[in-house]
Amino acid sequence: MTRRQNEQVKQTPQQVEPTSAAPSTGEKNLEGADVVLRVENLQKQYPIKKGFFAKAAQVVHALEGVSFELRRGETFAIVGESGCGKSTTGKCILRLTEPTSGKVYVGDQEFTSLRGKMLTQARQKLKLIFQDPYSSLNPRMTVADIIAEPIDIAGVCKTRQEREARIEEVMQAVNLDLSYKYRYPHEFSGGQRQRIGIARAIALLPEIIVCDEPVSALDVSVQAKVINLLKDLQAKLGLSYIFISHDLSVVKHISDTVMVMYLGHEMELASKMALFDKPLHPYTQALLDVIPRIAHERIADKRILQGDVPSPTNPPAGCVFSTRCGQCMAICKEKIPELVEVEPGHMCACHLYDKNLTEAQRKLSLHESLLAQRAHDAQLRSAAADEKTAYGEKTAYAALCSTKHVAPCRAQVTTACSTLQAQEA
């Protein structure tokens, strides 16, 4: 390589540097940070057709009026159950799926209206890290070719030396040995493959990366390394993440702001500390109750959601969570709640925080909810008692059979069961 070529490589703008230590887990100060992405009233509907020539008979309501902002250097987490619209939100933002309506702004530019070359150029600012590290990499391409693919499409490297230098910089940034350049994906573990996917995503130094459950397919020990790597890269490159996940423990570790979704609707939107310390929406409260905790942190009375998630083709009238909510009121089944600011920076879509709702109505709702919860708890206790009795009878039956070598009568089983329960007590 000539001296002039060496100088060209050194002058490559915004070179990626390798990192090692994970940043602190404290909250970042995002006040005054630029808004790099703005989503306004995003909607997506999938028509269901009975045949090729038939008209759409039904519609899947995947997204209904999703709106939020993403700031520079922020990690915006989207959480919820499977099928709530998390991944669809990410795909609509990237325009991998065209939204039915709504707008997406990247900086001051309306991303949803771009076409052709302007869309290709704007897409250099947004990248995606896929969920599955096994199927998202081309098995016939080497690591170098996978990382260089977006570089070649964008045409940012003018010479072969610049291209090779950029590949090596990116590999070092994600802690991949340079000897892996000409190996194929099948030669790597899941964690290493995901690092290759991350390297491909940051190759063009984007502003925004959509992380679609990037660690859900990995072992717990590998998850921590990948999460720390993402935080390192964010601190070095000023990246903004949209982090899609159903694992609230991971979200608590990496996120700055959290949006809770249910059946395509926003339920709650708040900072990480506000949402985990004081959840407002009944659905968020139920989600947080099921997070595994160590013994001294376990919650005595967990909120257990009853029933199944309604069909997105036929969502319930009013609040979509009304069929499973323990605090459901009459208005919940009639009117869709608006996402309002209950506390500074803490948004919630629930009629419990409706200013037009009287205090008497709130108390009545809470009283009815308490009665319903007590009835549900009584059913659970009764079922547990029946199960314990059945188990005791089986144990007593086996014991009598082993001693008498004959099938005992019902009275003998009941007596033996009572004796065993008395001994256990």
UniProtKB/TrEMBL annotation:
SMART domains for this protein: AAA
Biological source species: Atopobium deltae
Family named by the database record: Belongs to the ABC transporter superfamily.
Amino acid composition bias (Polar residues), ranges on this chain: 8-27
Name of this protein: Putative oligopeptide ABC transporter, ATP-binding protein AppF
Keyword terms, alphabetized: ATP-binding, Nucleotide-binding, Transport
Domain (ABC transporter): residue spans on this chain: 37-288
Record-level Gene Ontology MF annotations: ATP binding; ATP hydrolysis activity
NCBIfam families: oligo_HPY, PRK11308.1
Coiled-coil positions: none
Region (Disordered): 1-29
One annotated GO biological process: transmembrane transport
A family per Pfam: oligo_HPY
